[in-house]
Every structure is written in structure tokens, then in C-alpha cells.
Amino acid sequence: MDQAIVTLKKGEGRTLKAGGMWVYDNEIDSVTGSPQNGDVVEVRDFDGYCMGSGFINTRSKITVRMLSRKKGTIIDEAFIRRRVRDAWNYRRETIDTSSCRVIFGEADFLPGIVVDKFSDVLVVESLALGIDRWKLTIVEALKEILAEEGILIRGVYERSDAKVRLQEGMERSKGFIGEPFDTKVEILENGVRYIVDVEDGQKTGFFLDQKNNRAAIHRLCKGKKVLDCFTHTGSFALNAGVAGALSVLGVDASQLAVDQATENAALNGLQERVRFQCADVFELLPRLEAQGEKYDVVILDPPAFTKSRNSVKNAVKGYREINLRGLKLVRDGGYLATCSCSHFMDPELFAKTIREAAASAHKRLRQVEFRTQGPDHPILWAADQSYYLKFYIFQAVEER
Q: Is 5-68 CATH 3.40.190.10?
């Protein structure tokens, strides 16, 4: 059977031609053939030039997710397995693989799927119809490739419960792939032990993208008083504690997260120096300021304040407010670590927002370093959706 063909409108596909991975519904002129949603189609420019192939889904505004840029590529099990092996080989060369993101969607040329490895457990998040058909093949291929190196996976859990699946015409899904197992998994990262709840934790259970950024604060925290905002299960706070901080306060609005963070502190023998509080950070920071509190290091790791372009203005207000409040709590000469995990908060806008917050706080910022997500979350140039995490460390000094 001949492969269906998606033809772009004249003048469209600029992002795709620049190296992007998506074709939007309003860029398409015609679809020839009778493809079912989830099938592989060939994408052609208005003049018939082949631009590659990908999964089609007419229910989604992202109508085609590209798999290959080469004409005539056969998308079969062998192709998928090659992609999986390439993804693993890349991680072996770039990061500690004891716990890491093994597959990162478009950036690994497997659009719409994420696989995280927590010690000997895999967690799968499938967000697109086309790749969902290959989900089990990807899991089995990955288990086989890891076994070749003596890494035996004892269980696989699926966390395909994000709302975005509904936009693909799929139901949200969560549960074991294969035999059930204990979903509380202990991992070791940067010398810190954590219990990761892959069943009920946020996203896939733990945010691996900040691994190297958490390590970057170690040298700043020894003997210091540290405030960690939006601590989730305590990752930055515990890194500060392991690095020798004198005292650490971690804050999160989720009692479940605070309970898990407290458990993690005890796991590392840090319960005397690292404590956690359940509170709204936006409400707590002004109270701490009113009490005259000052910290040597303030860490701001908020959730994404915007997940669409339409809400960027409100997100800017949130980022400006939290950075202003955080800076007011940093002692003269202390440090601010601040980040944004929203793709739509682009680097220039984030930097501008921090600059405005610093001016309002009457603080001068000296940039120590700028970082992004870890290399297991590779940034595929020209595929902007793969670049989302911006992380700064500043020294904050009073205006002189």
C-alpha cells in the first residue's frame, strides 16, 4: 500500500525547514491517501519536495510529528530499535546513568515519548498517538539494550496521565507495564539518597533535569543558612545539607511533597539541619521578610507558571514577584539560584524579568553562572520545544 502524503501550503513549513520536528494543522494544504490517525505519512513541500516522514494525527493541532528527514526511510521495528540504542549510547557518553532520562521525545527523534530510569526501574510517559503504538517495542528494546551491559530492569511503570493526551484523542493512562513491583524506588544522585514515588509523585516521580544544577550549589552552601522554595521532595535542600549547610528550610505547598522531603532528609541523616514546611511560597516570603529573616543562599525552583503563549504575561508577573521576594531575603553578598522550567518563558524574557526584580529590590546582581537542563535532556537546535530550563546563580549585593 502506498504511503499517504501530506503536502504543505506554499510558504508554510518554515520551522520544519529550519530543523523543527512538528507540522501544524494550519500549514497543511492536502492529505492524499487514507491514513488512519497514528499512521506514518510522507511530508512534502508545496512543490513536491520530500521533507521526510512522521506520525499523523488530525485530532491534534500538531498534525505531524517528524520521525525522519530522509526520503524513503522505512519506519519499522528495526528503525525504532536503532533510535533507542542511539539514545542510550548518548547517555552513556554524557551523564551518570544510574538515574537519568533515557529518552527525551523529539530531542531523541522519538517524538512524544519520555522514558526515565530510576535505578532499576523505568517510567514511561507517552503523549502522542503515533508513538503510543510503539511504546511496548521501545520498552522491550531498552530493557534488552540495558541487559547487554548487565543492567537488569525489575519493573516498568507508565505515567501517561497528562491532559495533553486528551488533545491527541487518547485516554489518560497509568499503571504497570508487566509485573507489579514496589513503586517506591531509592536512588542516589550527587551523594544524596532519595525515595522516588513513581506511582504518585509529580510527572514521572522526580525531576532529573536539575541534576547538574543541584550539584552546582554545593560549593556555595557549606556553613550557610539556606532557603529552598518550591522544594518538591527536597532535592535542592538536601543537596545543600549534604554540602554542609548550617541550616536549611525547604518550602512547598504540597503536604505530600513535604512529607516525602522529610523522609528523604531522615534517609540522609540530615533531619537536624534540614527541615521542611508546607506553605504557599508567595505568602510565606513576605512574612519572612517582615520578621527580618536573611539567608546566605536562596533557591527558587518554581513550577512552570505558564504552559502556553497566552498566559506569558501573567507568568512574568509571577516570576518577577517571586524573584523580588527572594532577593529581599538574600543577605548582602549572598547568593540567589533561580530558574524557570517553562518553554514559553524564553531566555531573554526570563533575564529581563530577573533584572526588573533586582532593580525593585535595590540589589545588584553578579552572575556566577548560567545553566540549562542536564545533557540527558538534550536541546535539539531548531526544535525549540526541547529547550525549556533556564538556571542562574547570582551573587546579590546591595547598591553601593
A: no
